[in-house]
Give the backbone structure.
Amino acid sequence: MSGTVDGGPGGLGVDLHLELGEGGSRRALLIGALREAVRGGRLAPGTLLPPYRSLAADLGIARNTVADAYAELVAEGWLTSRQGSGTRVAERVLAPAPGPPRPAAPAALPYDLVQGKPDPGAFPRAAWLAAARKALTAAPHEAFGVGDPRGRVELRVALAAYLARVRGVRTTPDRIVVCSGTAHALRLLARVPLATHAREKPARQTAGHKAPPRPWAVEAYGLPYHQGLLGEEGIHTLPLAVDEDGARIAEIPPEAGTILLTPAHQFPTGGPLHPERRAGVMEWARRSGGLVVEDDYDGEFRYDRRPVGAVQGLDPDRTVLLGSVSKSLSPALRIGWMCLPEALVDGVVEAKGQREPHTSATEQLTLAEFVESGAYDRHVRRMRQRHRVRRDRLTSALAERVPGVRVTGLAAGLHAVVELPPGTERSAVAAAARHGVAVEGLSEYRHPAARGRILPDGLVVGYATPPERLYGPALDALCQALSAAL
């Protein structure tokens, strides 16, 4: 859509051709066109824009659409508006260099089945508030100072005991460093010159003589965000094939110095790392001097199998265990942890810095009390039961209404993989969006350099996020979309 507004009385003062294009809401397209006219110099500072009614008539769009677009650009600082003086281009627009307009953010779909997000309404507010009151009442004065960069000692003591009891982790409070989550932990590890052997302290590197970091092996299917942030830190990642038994440890690239795994519940395919491969990865670490970084993804949410202990328990001196409360409690808390080999603690603390800008000390104290009081165990048990019921509803609905698909990765976690016929993944994602369902394709998690064994087309369907009143309608919409697409 395009239109030309001429410079009559009360108009722009110059002819302006606006090309709105296609593929978005009229509001978003108009905002982009006006923003680019200002950024590119076609609308000079101080230029008076036409009234809503005039521009709407010339472009053939609603008056309210123009009003909303003007208001958005005023809020962004591109335009100014004063009653009685009209809307003008801001006098001092500090804009970036000309470039292509950013696409408008997609509108949120009503049914969120994207993996990895708990239902915000399930946060245990009353129990958390009770823990916060008790923790803050008992906290020493120094807890409200700068603090230890490793994190509050109360939380590190609580985590050491909890992880030993529940996950079979072998660590001590002085080998735990609190961080804001798995992504933060990976950034810190990427900045530490990891030792050739994890038992040895890394040698300090002199300026100008920094050795390039050795590549990391990562599972061929995993979070692209984690691969991307390692790349931002100068770490080259090498894909390692996965199958129903987890990562294929025998195929670790020889040049890799570190391997990143999700052994409790391979993400996103869902299976645990086979016992022989668990032993095999530790043998690789001992033989090569490499380091195992264990993302304890979904380790607490298991349904149809016995508990699987952390790989870290097999050799704490060659393994870094990463964990967080992002899925068990809330990502808003921004609390995670690293259980480190002793040789790496100083390097990680140095990389983190002496001041902790990421995780509130008061929330660390609250989490320590929440864990030690048993409230965390009770919450996890309650959510485990809820997620099991939701998982069963998902599988039952698909079996009844879309019998041609196979559902895998069901024994643990907050999502399932719905395997699809070859060549249908993209159309299934698009059909889901048309039915109001936000869901992701399995191929979106494949490492860009992955070769060889490629997993079937599929959807990664999260079942934890929707509130209870929307979960049934979300399943109905998903089944309708798959029936239409397959």
About this structure: The first helix runs from residue 26 to 39.
